[in-house]
Amino acid sequence: MKELWTVVTRKGQVTVPAEVRRELELKEGDKVAFVLDEGEVRLVRATSVVERTAGALRGPKSALTAQELRETAERTIASDAVERTGDLDDAAESGRMSPVPNR
Question: Would the pTM count as exceeding 0.70?
Answer without folding.
Answer: no
